[in-house]
Fold this sequence. Notes:
Oligomer: heterodimer
Number of helices of chain A: 40
Strand content of chain B: 5-15%
Distance between the termini of chain B: 43 Å
Structural class of chain A: alpha+beta
CATH architecture of the domain at 680-755 and 878-1028 and 1037-1056 in chain A: 3-Layer(aba) Sandwich
CATH topology of the domain at 680-755 and 878-1028 and 1037-1056 in chain A: Rossmann fold
Strand content of chain A: 5-15%
Number of strands of chain A: 28
Strand order of the largest sheet of chain B: 2-3
Amino acid sequence: xxxxxxxxxxxxxxxxTPGDATQPVGYVAELDEAWPDPARATSPGHSGVGVFPAxxxxxxxxxxxxxxxxxxxIDSPFLDLxxxxxxxxxxxxxxxxxxxxxxxxxxxxxxxxPQQFVAADPLAAPAAPAAPTEVERSPAGSARxxxxxxxxxxxxxxxTETEEAAPTAAEVTPRPAEVTPRRRLAERSEPxxxxxxxxxxxxxxQRDRATKGGRRDRATKTDRRDRATKPARIRPPKINFRxxxxxxxxxxxxxxxxxxxxxxxxxxxxxxxxxxxxxRPDAEREALLAAISxxxxxxxxxxxxxxRTTRPFPADEWARTIDTHTRAPLPxxxxxxxxxxxxxxxxxxxxxxxxxxxxxxxGVTFARRSLxxxxxxxxxxxxxxxxxxGERRKLSRTVEQFDxxxxxxxxxxxxxxxxxxxxLLYRSVALCMAPPGRLSPVTNGxxxxxxxxxxxxxxxxxxxxxxxxxxxxxxxxxxxxHVAVLAVGxxxxxxxxxRHEPWLHFxxxxxxxxxxxxxxxxxxxxxxxxxxxxxxxxxxxxxxDYAEHGIDAPPELERLAERALVIGDEMTTGLPVESAxxxxxxxxxxxxxxxxxxxxxxxxxxxxxxxxxxxxLQHPKNQDWLAREFIPGEPIANTGYVRRMPVNLFxxxxxxAASTVGDRRGDLIGRTAGTCRRPVFLxxxxxxxxxxxxxxxxxxxxxxxxxxxxxxxLGYLAARRGVQVTLLDPSGPLAxxxxxPELAPYARVLNLTGSEPGTLAPYxxxxxxxxxxxxxxxxxxxxxxxxxxxxxxxRRMLVQDICMMLVPPQVAxxxxxxxxxxxxxxxxxAEETATLDDVVxxxxxxxxxxxxxxxxxxxxxxxxxxxxxxxxxPPEGLLGPDATLTVITMxxxxxxxxxxxxxxxxxxxxxxxxxxxxxxxxxxxxxYGGSMSSRKLVGLDEAHFMEGWRSGRSxxxxxxxxxxxWNLAALVASQNPKDIxxxxxxxxxxxxxxxxxxxxxxxxxEALRLLRVPVNDGYEATLASLSAADSTSAARxxxxxxxxxDVDGRVQKVRVDVSYVDGLLDHLDTTPAAVAAAAxxxxxxxxxxx
Amino acid sequence: MRLRTDDxxxxxxxxxxxxxxxxxPVHLPYAQYGLFMLLVPLYMFVHWLFTLQVELFPAWEIALxxxxxxxxxxxxxxxxxxxxxxxxxxxxxxxxxxPAAEQRDPRLVGSRIRIREELA
Lengths: 1090, 120
């Protein structure tokens, strides 16, 4: 974890719900979301959209107008911390403002430091027209939210006044600069300054007053005073926050390193990194679970607190990364989305689909503090010091044992840092609410020590008697959230990993983030046996009772007694892992913006668990205590729903399981579609530039599986980043990409069927290596010579293959044909300048009838217009490196069916084969034109035609080898993984996408082999179920699913979704109906040809 | 691997059948008798508060205790011990029942927590 602080809207900003919910104009609603939940990720305003200035001048990032102060009627000194305007204090705040010392100087009318880069772009504008800082700040939202805060004395009055005063306030008072409040907050966190922070002072004042006299007394008092000063006013607005409500300190008194101290206990906290679960062999999973159970067993005698919270995906961080890695994005075309808009759209998309990353913490409560220690701490606290050094030093030695136990294979836990603990505490107090965002990108954007804890003061808790939820209100942002806490009830036997998912990972199937808390006592073998024996004796005594009374005992007693005996036997004779037990409470917190939403989500979760895992989740009363249990150090809510289980089962809860795939620096291509949903990013140059692997990517799917669309989408995204892209698409629909307005000036289409003769001349397709590509010196010279002769050999091989393809199959099968071709080809110098005509001439000169016959056969084929492409010299400047996106098509060409014998192919079909071969070469040839280090991408569709020919394999091997040297990402699409496996290049493949394969078991197994996933383990069914259409629906499937293996060997089900790019899917749609529909709107291929 | 909890062992229904030689017509869990025995003196004490005298056979108290016990045990199951049921009833009953004016619970404030970057 690089940075655990969630980015996004500063907490002081009105966390605008509509901001998240707003989608850019023309946004294609995501059809695949079973539960579209755009409004709330972790909660509103959970993350920010970083807008990039890459191609735009700096002055466009204008300082924003201050937000109108409408509705911010919460009088909190924190309100203006993050730039929210104060509710027109000058006019409406009477007594309250005067009574207290102003904690900070009134903000001067000075130019505001912009909080985010503001996109003054056309795309962002319609989404949040008045929003000064993109999605986070929506004045309307803030007004609406703020009004939800109940029970403000004089709320109504204050609001009307504020609304009146708002325009003037907005004009006069700009937002205070970020720096001032930040410093103030930092001061607050200082131990000395914290004793009397401004807000505390005020609240204690008020509390005192409240205790002295009743509320009414106070009101009349202020009334009187107010009337004395301003007689004109009828009623003073009491918008000062009624701070009489009691506040309770958390049980934790001190955080020292990774330890937390409560008066009685000390807890050591560990961070558990995510582990991969999906698509791993069962044996590996079992080994993982066994290792974790052993670790738990090693903690026997301690109480554990396992907490899982979430962090919204840092979309802006990602955008910043991709922007950094994009040296030269495609220049903007006026009137089309610019590079910055493109990134903004991607970030919006990311935010709208609720990606939250899990964070798992494990606390081990390991020491009871002695009375003396606790007393010493109390005394020292009054002097501004905390836990005594002696005690801490003693603990630091004890705690090392946990590092050893938890750091091993299995959990691989590491000590948490204090900021992480603060984050956990804040997230636990503000359960399921918006995490605080970055303060400001102007400063370092991080919270200072203690800031987050200070923010817990702002979270108010409300409850209704016997209520099913707890209401939490963040009085700084006005955000309101409802939380329902569910307890894990009865559990049926689970088969993990064979049949079931880890039972605390399973909740991630639902698209909204949840929080988990497990409080568990780990019992060692002695304790668990004693516990069990006691229970067994009770059962036996009951049986005896029944016997004495002459009544038949219920059969269950005997069954349970037997089971207890078996378990007892396991405990006494087995290993410590088998005897250790985890007795504890497991809770899940579900949040929602309204009570109804929250309860609906809870209901869904309960349903999902009972249906799929046979775990009954209970929704007990006393919710406020249950919600409190999530906070580290707080007591357990109640003793109900205690689950007693072996540590194996507790280890199989595995809340830290995750399924990430892809790199975090590439384009957004979709999300994982397994149990949890994470965004998937793919930078096709990541394998070469970072991992130093080959850049060969393979796509395998049945027809209609979405290969071409994915290829086109990747090509588009790469082209936007300024990568030189060449796509070979024999059937032609990808040519429409070139018509996309943002690409049009930089794209060209090359239709081979209409090209000049010589375009596919085989000799020139293989470039001669340049001396400059090799190192200086003798070694380099030798390498260069080898490479040159290799290129010659390859040319000869290619020409022989092409000749074989051009002659009829009956002739090709004869042994003499191959010999003659070889003979002829050997005589022609294998340079780029040679042509096929030379070969024909050489054949003709042979004093052999068969040779002359072959020459004639070749000349016969040359009469066909398409075959003319192979003969003669290539036209000059055919494929210069100028166009960013080049699509090579072969419109109108009929591709043969490889299952049919070659004899039965028509002449045209027979020609398609050599054309495809050479077209592949041509597409790659273009990449050797520019500099070696510049990024290049080649997408080759229909690669299965390469199989069965020597030159095909050498082509792919060469591609894979060269990909690293030339920084060339090569994507190869095929219908059958056998083609790739048959070429024996799978070791060079770095990225694999496998789409739906339902027809043929064998092909599915081959695909799994390509993915390096265990075969015959049930994963074939997974491949068949990819992109499964809903048979009850007449609509088309709006997405495609793939199983993806990335360069690091992680495998995951991925749902490709590039709907955030406006118009891309329309241009990529290859279905006949869409093509027909688009005919009027989108240009046909002929028009596109350059 | 097949994993199951040990909960069923703890879910065994343990009932009081009656003193030796006599079987009670109804078989109630031991816990119910325990609660009943706690409630009777409690009601007697309440009764005493009103009347300042103790009755020899506290009929009303016994009746009330039986009703209360059965009422409480309607909500008790192996996962929900009587203590939790009573606790919930008390905590939630303590508050006003007016949901329109939700009660504000004490804020849980962590700002007083001292933070030390290093343990020692």
